[in-house]
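Can't attach files on this board, so I'm pasting raw text. These are the components:
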Amino acid sequence: MDEVSTRSRYRAREESITLSPLEEQIAAQRGGETTELLTLNIGPHHPATHGVLRLLVTLEGEIVRELKPIIGYVHTGIEKTAEQKAYWKVIPVVERMDYLSYYFNAMVFCGAVETLLECEVPKRAQYLRVIHLELNRIMSHLVWLGTSALDLGAISMFWYCFRERETILDLFEFSSGQRMHTRYFQVGGVIEDIPRGFEAKLREFIAIMPGRADQYADLLQRNEILLQRLRGVCPLDEETLLGLGVTGPLLRAAGNPWDLRKAAPYSSYEDFEFRIPVGTVGDNYDRFAVRLAEIYESVKIIEQALDGLPEGPYITEDRKVALPPRHELATSMEALIHHFKLVTEGFRVPPGEIYYAIESPRGELGCFVRSDGSSKPARVHMRDPSFVNLQATAPMVRGAYIADLIATLAMLDPILGGIDR
Amino acid sequence: MPDQVGLELIAGQLATQIPGAVRQTTFFRNRATVEIAPAAVRGVLAQLRDEHGYRALMSVHGVDYYPEEPRLGVHYELLDMARVDRLTVKLRVPLAEPNVESVTPDWPTADHQEREVYDMFGVTFDGHPDLRRILMPEDYEGHPQRRDFPIGGEPVLFTYNDATSPGWTR
Amino acid sequence: MALTREPIEPGSFRARQLLARDLLRGDLEGLELERHVEQSILTTTLDRAVAWGRSNAIFPATFGLACCAIEMMSVVAARVDIARFGFEAFRASPRQADLLILSGRVSIKMAPVVRRIYDQMLEPKWAIAMGACSSSMGVFNNYAIVPADKFMPIDVHVPGCPPRPEALMHGILKLRKMIQDDPEMGWRQRYDAQGTEEVLQGSEPAGA
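---
Top answer:
Structure tokens for the assembled complex are below.
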């Protein structure tokens, strides 16, 4: 069989990549001294790439000269699948996008649909949402901390962080029945009120969590190895970050206190008092410190939400959007009809387009929903923060060592499920 | 969000600076959208950034308006961090001529996002430094998120189609 | 009718049958008994010993794809501790790994990569499809996902979205039992996968 004909166009193009322009550029910078560049492929199967991320690094010795991320290895067609399902059924599909912050995915979609429907979310539901969102934020930061420390060599951090994570997942299981991808947020509120005992268990957790976070800080914050690996490594200034559209802890580490919870509060965030941790230099150590500090702030928010939890319905009373309570089905004909319509067809959303954004643990998570008046969305697009933040990797690591590349990837906190959708 | 009046002022200024740019304005659920002519996208975004302060481009995404023509739309979500204002700029291109000027030289964040719109919808961005498929394999044919692209998938395996479904050899 | 006596060959099946009968009756003595015991226990137990060793020292490959990978990390974590069974040595290189836990959705771009990694693993190797997305299509029945059965043989499917760490543990222990009972497990026959062994240039494939 002829060798050439079995090669795809893709392979032919890959083999035609030449590095001479870059080599010439470096040679010109050095006044004529030529050097050989090596292109290395990291991933998609690699223990340190936080998921299936493929990086094409061009190296001069150990220094990274150019970086090209190649994504799409976990592309799931979530946005297209969402067009085939009723709005209610889109929630579990969209939840599995950024798989560490599933409550945020559900929240942003529900928020978008609620805005389209002009549906009021009751206060109790908003507070419950805030509690679960902040618990999810803590959990996401814990997984980030555990896996990043693992990358840097502090292996025991992994077990400590996952111990706390198990407690949080127990709480999620308590309130919704599922550890991950809980489908707890529904359009109009939450699916069920919190059971008896949840508050006590949650108070136990928020009593111990700051102490545990102090333990992590003791282990890591002044650790010489961590400081050497993260301090002053791969900084990126605020202007470049803003140009790249980066938000979240990365932007806050560079000094810009942009946080949607404070700037454009949603779901009763304006009722709570919390601070925004902000870094100074924008290097890897600041990114690490900002996320660690955010854990404390989230605990504060949960405590305030729990203390001020109002009585009331946990989902909107509008029967055209939310299912009626089961006891009504026995007595009221309208309730039965609403239930039937909602379960079979789903609620209809008036035509329009909306973009709704919240602050996820990685940055601005946005959801664009276009509805054409039927019971299925015509377009759902999730603006994932990691997808946009990934573009900042190349400017960050140019000129740094490979080990710094690994540390920077860890501090960037990319979640490939969100990047690839 | 700029309110209705603010939106009309912005649209008016855009129309005077760049004639023929603004096609329509929409103020829906307290959110402002300006629909522009595709040829004017770079100018309009530059204008909005310099004159009106929308310095952050948060999202570039595509929409398929099948069966209405012009069919493919591209939305640009702008954000003014100083005044916490959002503005959506949208444009629509027909399927026959899906070319839009790339805004990547002015807004580096649009790099991967325009590639995604190209990959999923087929809108080509002129002037993009590296317009290749980003999520699908490089040699994939078709643009998956168009409304007339089939959803695909495997048939659910039951006993009656167990033997004929691919993946099982007997 | 004439009765004929035929000598029984030592080592033949009939001879061993008679020896076993004598053993059960308690009629074997001395040297005969010792030799018989030696022989029978060696031949049947060696395989079982090897299988026991293999099943208790599986090296899984670090192959986290999506959400199920987080639950796989929970299996390694302290509450559901996979190290109890000896499987905590996750090897990053497929050359050193035995078990591929496909945790997460396999997209069409990733499928050839998974297949390549699976091919690079050395015999004997096993695969667990963790979660609904890799076993069947899961939540996403669309153009972008491939069920793992389509391109590689899977030994255990663990359902769930994502499966609890305890469920994954149950699946892994089931696999362990399968290996202990029958190391071959006949998957090459089941999946008609003869010829998928990696063959070095110049040598012959084993058992093909």
